[in-house]
Amino acid sequence: MNVLFDLVIALLIIIGIMLLVPLVFFIYLYIKDDRQKQHSILRNFPVLGKVRYFTEKIGPELRQYLYNNDNEGKPFSRKQFQDVVKSGKYKDRLVGFGSLRDFGDEGFYIRNTLFPKLRTELKVDNEPKIKTRIYVEEGDNLFSRKEHSEERLINPVFLTDDNAVILGEHTCRQPFKLKGLIGQSGMSYGALGEHAITALSKGLAMAGGTWMNTGEGGLSNYHLAGKTDIIFQIGPGLFGVRNLNGEFSWEAFKKKSEMEQIKAFELKLAQGAKTRGGHVEGEKVTEEIAKIRLVEPGKTINSPNRFKEFDSPASLIHFVEELRNVSGKPIGIKIVVGDLDALEELVAYMKESGKGPDFITVDGGEGGTGATFQELADTVGLPIQSALPIVDEMLKEYGIRDKVKLIASGRLITPDKIAIALAMGADLVNIARGFMISVGCIMAQVCHTNNCPVGVATTNKKLQDGLIIDEKQYRVCNYLVSLREGLFNLAAAAGIDSPTKFERKHIVHKDKLGRVFPLDEILHAAKRTQHQEH
Description:
This is Glutamate synthase domain-containing protein 2. One of its GO terms (biological process) is glutamate biosynthetic process. Belongs to the glutamate synthase family. Pfam families: Glu_synthase. The termini are far apart. This protein has 534 residues and is an alpha/beta fold. It has 2 domains: 1-70, no CATH class; 153-531, TIM Barrel. Helix 5 packs across helix 17 (469-494) and helix 6 (194-207) packs across helix 17. It is globular and about 100 Å long. The chain is built from 18 helices and 19 strands. The chain has helices at residues 2-35, 40-44, 46-57, 59-67, 78-90, 194-207, 221-224, 250-257, 287-293, 313-327, 340-353, 374-379, 384-397, 415-423, 433-438, 461-464, 469-494, 519-533; strands at residues 107-110, 124-125, 130-140, 145-154, 158-159, 165-167, 176-178, 182-184, 212-213, 230-234, 262-268, 279-280, 301-302, 331-335, 359-363, 405-409, 428-431, 507-510, 516-518.
């Protein structure tokens, strides 16, 4: 009897503690919020205010996973995100029942022909095969999901030699030949962690026919890990090709140009999401990153918004020529289109001098970044579907389009968007965030904080433990090959045997009233408007 009594007393004490502790904690928060002077809502309504701030904090996740429909969400919709994940994980782009696109909205469409190309008529090189791993679903129920990965041999879907794109074919001692139209846009080590960079390097190397842009942060061993081809990007901070005083070093540049993996160099004049120059928080600048960039460890990096080495078309082109002469490799520039007069001045000088870059990367204002200011990301720089045709048309008007290749970037993460960019004038396409998603990015949008929950945009060792290189490298490879397959499917539908042959005539724009306009007609109307303004 005494034992039972003791048990009852003990149980009551435990229950009392369980009720008392939360009550005391609640009272503490109530008094604390009631007395604080920072937040009006918490001072007047401590309980409801806490609920409000909690809901506000988890709002982005609620919208992403529960409230946004499949075609909503920025910078990418749920559908676009899932398209990348499916391509990388399952190498699958199949859909059932119908498209989720809102066909009442305005947008571009690819003009299919009555007599498309057969698979046997496509100019595609499928040797050598690629050994990869693809996930296979065994069951997908509400509370359980079974799947396993299998080794597969897949076609690489290369361009044939006669359709390969060559950078610096007539200007360089060592031109860069590409049998694929899609590569990785600039992503620096430091903005991304070593696990992500390594997985990307190995996956791209596995797929072949592509390139990896280092980003302005310099060349790391992680970029080199997969032995993929490299485009070394040089930003205004001159990371990796500068001396300790921050000035350009020809000696350091020459050493980089002698590396076999580096196939070309790109001067980053601007970036779509951050025309201000680069920014990396000090906590992400480790000893290793500082050594690569030749900066102080632990100190926030704000690189200038333009090069000190040149400030006019003539001085820019002179610098490009010097880089090409020293390296013997293709030299390109990365621009954001805004001031059309300045752009025309550059193109006119290229025509007049007979000199210029081997390629121009046109980055749309909708492009991504590890960190920038809101006002720059939202407003500065034209989006890619406006900017790309302008550059293409201007080069044609001055008769030098055949002397320079155009690389387009800006949310071009699916085959249809890439095909439209090719038809608008691009020779090649850069992708950054699509590849980030392929290695695990969930669009948490905390890239600038070093707290990426999936270990992609962080140098935090603990967070990077979640990103398994040996698994994610296959997703990178599968995603890239899937994109190339999709491009050939669209080429066949348009009646051409290779995606390199997409032209303006292959796309049209439909407005909200259902009216259809060829791209040339839109461009000519825009040109007339510009002339009237002048």
